[in-house]
Design a protein that fits this description.
The complex is a heterodimer of chains A (120) and B (596). Helix content of chain A is 80%, strand content 0%. Chain A has 120 residues and is an all-alpha fold. In chain A, helix 4 packs antiparallel against helix 5 (93-117). Classes of the chains: A mainly alpha (120), B alpha/beta (596). The interface between A and B is medium-sized, with 22 and 22 residues.
Chain lengths: 120, 596
């Protein structure tokens, strides 16, 4: 499931499916947004230094986290980075990082909105 | 005087007669000599596989018969049907003999001689000499011409000698024909061989290409596992979610069908993937210690739910003494048994299914186990008893429609059994039932170190009497860490978290009796889950208490599961993390016994 604007209802279902209370799930999502942001910073510098191993490692972590929360878009993009790095290609991956950042911001937005509106 | 003249003339007559008889005697002697050697000659010309040795043998035989000065053989040129000089003896007379040939051809005598199936004698161009021409012909065709030159004063026409000459040359003609035919045949054979070789090579190349394509296909399929399973899990998962919403009766039925179909499809995909792995040669058997009786028991439990709506009884009998530990691949051993039991369950509507495990053969270090699965199902026609083990085969095509399945199960069983140096086969009586046999060799384990908990797996406990299990969670990803932690805490468990294998090992060794269950991520920095598990299992030997470890991995293949089991893990959970899966595993592995 990709998170898009106005899809907070799906988030709620996801939370239910995973057996979480709303606030617990919000907490995890917040944690996700934060860790993903810091991961992305590490990823960016690893990319600049050409540290392939590090790129694989960090992309794998983002992928794992996104996969568990069924954030399919982020999962797929992170997976793309990991696979590309495993094949030794680092070119053009900044674009992927940007895409993850964009989607991560979307999640943050949904969170912020639900904070105000209490949708979840 | 007259008397004297008379005497003189009679003396002359006597002398003449004497000379004549001597001459005859000499010739007969030659003939005898020739005939005596004719056996050798025959063998010689028939054995020889080249023209000049046949001719040399012929010439020497002819020389026994008549005092030829020169002998020559002419063969027919294939292209223009003319006669060419092939062999001449002595060879330095070649130029001379060619003049004789040319003059006979010019005079027409040569052509005439061709159609006389006997020796033709005529004066030679060289005075005082005669030429003998004799055609070399078999019944089918003319093979050449013999030409011999004799000195007039040294020979007289003598019929038996000429007859003998004909006989020798007839033999030679046949020998020449044999030679020609032999060469023709050999050419054909060589061509044939070359052709066969060419074809074989083409076929080999085609086969190689097909094999490569097949392996590529299998690899592709095997590697696609995750890709195929993820959307399927999505379909099943969301059908599940749908079922929890407010639906009317019809919608519930539809959603359930979606879920069931999804699960069935996933099952088929697993089969096909397994088969592809075997085909791609990517399947490797584990060698870990296990108790076959335990595996058989487990397989029976697994099949029970399939029988709950049918009047079918399941009996499981394990021969005494089998319960020794063996070394092998318990996962694959179980897979074959589950498959055979599954088939029995599928095709038996009423009656019973019996499973028997016994030792068939025992050697110093190895034991051959025999599993027999007997059912009272529809049975299999005799002519299908072998083909059911071929891939994509079922007893008949309507089987697929009625009972489902890929038709790969038994083929996989067969291949797995071969990997275990055993076999799978069936006997059956249509309408009465079938018996499937499965044999496999395992190394015996003398001094058994258990690699699996001895206490039987306890089934799900009731929610209300759940005991607060202590769980160690070893997982590096903070999100997954939190997800699992919250899920487990909500289930009433006490959870401790470690961020990598090393940390997990440290927590475990500090108080090994504290934890009832460990969730172990496989891929982690510093120390991965496999290594941590191995080290924990080493610790256990001195502690004497087994703590179940559940692997958490991103990979869905059975091999990954086997890898986890090999490292000493007890069970396996594929990502993504789902509440149901997590809680089922906790219920499965935290036994009632420990609650007391």
């Amino acid at each position: 499931m990709g998170i898009k604007k106005g899809e907070s209802v799906n988030l709620m279902k996801l939370a239910e499916d995973m057996g979480f209370e709303e606030n617990e799930f919000l907490e995890i999502l917040e944690l996700f947004v934060k860790t993903t942001n810091s991961y992305l910073n590490v990823l960016q510098s690893a990319l600049e230094q050409g540290d392939i191993q590090k790129v694989i490692e960090v992309a794998h972590s983002i992928k794992g986290a996104a996969g568990s929360l069924e954030l399919t878009d982020i999962y797929n993009i992170a997976k793309g980075i990991e696979m590309s790095a495993r094949e030794g290609h680092l070119d053009g991956l900044s674009e992927n990082i940007r895409l993850i950042k964009e989607r991560n911001n979307l999640v943050a937005e949904v969170l912020a909105r639900s904070d105000q509106e209490g949708i979840l | 005087m007259i008397d004297c003249v008379k005497e003189c003339s009679s003396l002359n007559i006597l002398k003449e007669r004497n000379t004549y008889l001597e001459d005859i005697n000499r010739r007969l002697f030659c003939l005898l000599d020739m005939m005596a050697s004719s056996g050798d000659f025959q063998a010689n010309i028939n054995r020889n596989r080249n023209l000049s040795s046949i001719l040399i043998a012929t010439f020497s035989q002819l020389k026994r018969l008549l005092p030829f000065q020169v002998m020559a053989f002419l063969s027919i040129d294939e292209t223009d049907q003319s006669f060419v000089l092939k062999e001449c003896e002595p060879s330095w007379k070649q130029r001379y003999i060619q003049t004789e040939i040319d003059s006979k051809i010019m005079s027409g005598e040569f052509a005439w001689a061709l159609y006389q199936n006997r020796p033709v004698i005529m004066p030679a161009k060289k005075s005082g000499y005669s030429v003998v021409l004799h055609v070399l012909a078999t019944q089918s065709r003319i093979r050449g011409m013999f030409l011999g030159v004799l000195q007039n004063k040294k020979f007289n026409i003598h019929d038996p000698s000429l007859k003998a000459l004909s006989i020798i040359l007839l033999n030679t003609a046949y020998a020449l024909e044999t030679l020609v035919l032999y060469r023709l045949l050999r050419n054909h054979m060589e061509n044939l061989e070359a052709e066969v070789q060419g074809r074989t090579q083409e076929l080999q190349e085609a086969r190689k290409r097909a094999d490569v394509a097949n392996i590529t296909k299998s690899r592709f399929l095997a590697n696609m596992s995750h890709e195929i399973r993820t959307p399927m899990n999505g379909v099943i998962g969301f059908a599940d979610m749908l079922l929890e919403t407010n639906l009317d009766k019809e919608q519930v039925e539809y959603a359930r069908t979606i879920k069931r179909s999804g699960e069935a499809l996933l099952f088929l995909i697993d089969d096909i993937l397994d088969f592809s792995k075997i085909e791609a040669g990517q399947l490797r058997l584990e060698t870990i210690n296990f108790d076959p009786a335990f595996v058989v028991d487990d397989a029976c439990k697994l099949i029970m739910p399939q029988l709950k709506n049918k009047p079918v009884e399941l009996h499981c009998h394990i021969e005494e003494g089998v319960t020794a530990y063996v070394q092998g691949d318990p996962g694959r051993f179980r897979e074959v048994i589950v498959n055979l039991l599954g088939n029995a369950a599928k095709f038996t509507d009423s009656g019973e299914i019996g499973l028997l495990l016994f030792r068939e053969e025992e050697k110093k270090d190895f034991v051959k186990l025999h599993v027999e699965v007997r059912d009272t199902g529809i049975g299999i026609p005799k002519d299908k008893l072998e083909s059911i083990f071929e891939p994509f085969h079922q007893a008949d095509s309507t089987t697929t429609r009625k009972y489902g399945g890929t038709g790969l199960g038994l083929s996989i069983c067969k291949q797995l059994s071969k990997l275990m140096d055993g076999d799978v086969w069936a006997e059956s009586e249509p309408g009465k039932g079938s018996i499937f046999h499965f044999t496999s060799w395992f190394r015996k384990v003398e001094d058994c170190k258990e690699e699996k908990a001895e206490e039987p797996v306890t089934l799900a406990t009731q929610q209300e009497d759940r005991y607060p299990a202590h769980i160690l969670l070893v997982e590096d990803n903070p999100i997954n860490q939190n997800l699992l932690r919250i899920m487990l805490m909500k289930h009433g468990c006490h959870v401790e978290v470690a961020s990598n294998g090393r940390e997990g090992l440290k927590k475990y060794t500090q108080d090994p009796n504290k934890y009832d269950l460990i969730f172990m991520d496989c891929q982690m920095p510093e120390m991965d889950g496999f290594e941590a598990t191995r080290l924990m299992r080493n610790e256990e030997i001195t502690i004497g208490r087994h703590t179940p470890i559940i692997a958490v991995t991103a990979h869905a293949m059975k091999e990954d599961r086997d890898k986890c089991i090999a490292a000493g893990m007890d069970d396996y959970m594929a990502k993504p993390i789902k509440k149901e899966k997590v809680l089922d595993l906790v219920d499965k592995w935290v036994s009632r016994k420990e609650k007391v």
